[in-house]
Amino acid sequence: MSLKNCHNIADLRARARRKLPPAIFDFMDGAADDEVTLRRNTSAFDDYELLPRHLSDVSNVSLRTEVLGQTIAAPIILAPTGMSRLFHHDGELAVARAAAEAGIYYSLSTSSSVSLEDIAAATSGPKMFQLYIHKDRELTRELMTRAKDAGYEAACVTIDTAVLGNRERDLYSGLTVPPRLTLKSLLGFAMHPRWGLNVLTHDQLSLPNISHRVDAVSQDAMSIIAYVNDQLDASVRWDDVAEVAAAWGGPFGVKGVMSPTDAVRAADAGATAVIVSNHGGRQLDGVAATVDLVAECVDALQGRAEVILDGGVRRGTHVVKALALGAKACMMGRPYLWGLAAGGEAGVNRFLGLMRNEIERDMALTGCRTVEEITPDYIRRRPTQWPRNY
Ligand SMILES: Cc1cc2nc3c(=O)[nH]c(=O)nc-3n(C[C@H](O)[C@H](O)[C@H](O)COP(=O)(O)O)c2cc1C
User: Fold this and answer.
1) Among 282, 285, 337, which is best to mutate for testing ligand 1, by the most ligand atoms less than 8 A from CB?
2) Which of 96, 129, 194, 361 has fewest C-beta within 10 Å?
3) Closest protein CA for atom 20 of ligand 1
4) Atom 2 of ligand 1 has which residue's CA nearest to it?
5) Ligand 1 atom nearest residue 310's Cα
6) How confident is residue 214, by pLDDT bands cut at 50, 70 and 90?
7) Residue 238 lies in a domain
8) How many domains does the structure of the chain reveal?
9) Annotation marks residue 7 as catalytic
10) Looking at the domain assignment, is residue 19 inside a domain?
11) Residue 389 domain-assigned (yes or no)
């Protein structure tokens, strides 16, 4: 299936699956334990129903909105994802360029495979730097200073990674982090020679934001990933977040909030945006779907911080539902990576075009001309289905 014949996100995923060795596809696609939260993140949107209001002149629909201190062209933010060059040799550069062209925020991960400075130099669109607070606090401070110097408009700190989630697909495929190459994963690479050739003929995979802190003898990408995992700091507390937020001094998100209590704590710590996220189900399995927490977090915050929904968004209707529940915007991760794997920058453009079209059409069909018009009046929880003979 060519890119232009990909008519929705599921088509992009199918194309990505064909292009990537299974171990790499599973690393991107998979989640923790039984992947219950991964599935719930998307299926929980079905528990909400839109209540359209017709005949409201929707001849002009605008997706423009404001979030994290910037006006963006659509209520979508590309989530931070590490090591994007695993999926296409252009990696984060391709994604950041596509986001800039579409006029939306791109979030760059601490664990990116292109440096934060190279991304800033190559694109002029709004950018957010995602920070992991490392045991190496010197490095943590240095990353924030570098992001500020490079002109990033916003920053966020991810709080759901005290330890790494249990991703069993990676154990079975042999691509553990750090990876252990098995006969099976090597066979997968051999069956996808173009991917292998691209990896071999382009710059070596690395984590350039942090690699200077790793011993020079172990600069290969995977020993650096091992270093990152070793650096996850289980002792991080809200005081540390407050310190980072104060040092940043601009639009600041806390990513990984999964309770109204933590939403308030994040605002207390100085967050201007609360990113309701369970890391796409990759950390703790069995937590709530993010869409089910949006309204509660909005209520608890009383306008003290914006709420951004992250996880499970696959359709324009999902975005409209999240906004109707009170979110300012939606973050998306895997869907743009599927686009990247499916066709590099053109694939990410295709993903963004599909999302834009879907949101625009769904807003028109709901009867909303602007993002501000999408209010709780347009949504309800699906009534409980009682058995017929009840
Ligand atoms: C391959 C991959 C790598 C990720 N790396 C990071 C990361 O470095 N930092 C982070 O905060 N979240 C990371 N995430 C989580 C995403 O930011 C986001 O929370 C998640 O993908 C949202 O769910 P969705 O994929 O259903 O949209 C990663 C997700 C994936 C799929």
Assistant:
1) 282
2) 194
3) 280
4) 81
5) 22
6) confident
7) yes
8) 1
9) no
10) yes
11) no
